[in-house]
Amino acid sequence: xxxxxxxxxxxxxxxxxxxxxxxxxxxxxxxxxxxxxxxxxxxxxxxxxxxxxxxxxxxxxxxxxxxxxxxxxxxxxxxxxxxxxxxxxxxxxxxxxxxxxxxxxxxxxxxxxxxxxxxxxxxxxxxxxxxxxxxxxxxxxxxxxxxxxxxxxxxxxxxxxxxxxxxxxxxxxxxxxxxxxxxxxxxxxxxxxxxxxxxxxxxxxxxxxxxxxxxxxxxxxxxxxxxxxxxxxxxxxxxxxxxxxxxxxxxxxxxxxxxxxxxxxxxxxxxxxxxxxxxxxxxxxxxxxxxxxxxxxxxxxxxxxxxxxxxxxxxxxxxxxxxxxxxxxxxxxxxxxxxxxxxxxxxxxxxxxxxxxxxxxxxxxxxxxxxxxxxxxxxxxxxxxxxxxxxxxxxxxxxxxxxxxxxxxxxxxxxxxxxxxxxx
Length: 424
Hints:
Blueprint: H1 12-25, H2 31-38, H3 42-55, H4 75-88, H5 94-104, H6 111-121, E1 148-155, E2 165-172, E3 178-183, H7 188-201, E4 207-210, H8 237-245, E5 248-251, H9 259-278, H10 284-302, H11 322-325, E6 328-333, E7 339-342, E8 345-349, E9 357-362, E10 368-372, E11 375-377, E12 379-382, E13 413-415, E14 421-423
Parallel strand pairs: 1-4, 4-5
Antiparallel strand pairs: 1-2, 2-3, 6-9, 7-8, 8-12, 9-10, 10-11, 13-14
Helix pairs in contact: 1-2, 1-3, 2-3, 5-6
């Protein structure tokens, strides 16, 4: 006979229940008073009374204690899941791992069950969250397109399989709708390219919330001697493009102020990095192709409903040259021989013009267009002109004094700006 089956421990609530039921059996209280005291029904009290008469203290213990649950997974299933996790999903979180096990391997396991298995095996460690600094909470915007938070995420997205990439991301403040694209760096061209993609998909947002990166805001420090010539409203190329499109730029004073885009980057750095690894993406084009297909899945999981159903995105007018606005525009001086220098290259304007200052447009596809106002000027790319050789002029340098002046001569010489010398 197994004596361990007779060993059991009562919990605090079970001890309380047993003591009340004993009072019922000893006729100190009735069953109705016991049900009110234990906050259970009369029928349940009668059932417990019968079990206590038969099994004494064991009668208040639930009969399923110590038994395996009906939904408990077999040991072979648990072993198979842990082997797959160690082989393919060794650094995945339990939630993402359970999703990938169902999507790729057809194995359905609850994320909390998997979390307990991983913690017990030492494959996952609970990460204690630091208490955030107290800040005033800003409510979401009510309309889709009312404000978009924008930023660039510098991360090893390809985990060493290719060059380092930057994800230019745009997230709507009202709905968490995310749009992004990979680039080689964070700068003017990537910012304009990402904005162009966002506009083509959704339209023109009312405002963009971003940081004070030099691409978006003029951070140049002026000397005190420059104050008469300083332009207080000097814009960057990206700021000029947004001003022409009617998009308001709002600059955040801290990363926490635009926390929505910072948090979505943290989520993507965990999930999207692993998606790129599973797809074996090794370059910029492959990463963008996967991201384009992944956006619908990601937004379907994390998108929320806006407070108001109205979409305030504006479609760009057909008369607006969107490609021309989203380009780098630089003013250059046109020489008398109608040549202009730009980015260490020389261009020859072939059309006759009386313009002295022209504008060079650098489009996102790398093409160059030269304009005088709205007139497009044709040009040819020419080699750099050779410089004229300098003629060295040899001249005699006359001494300032014919004879040296003694130190104690009784007089001093003062030389003022110019050619005159005065004696004292």
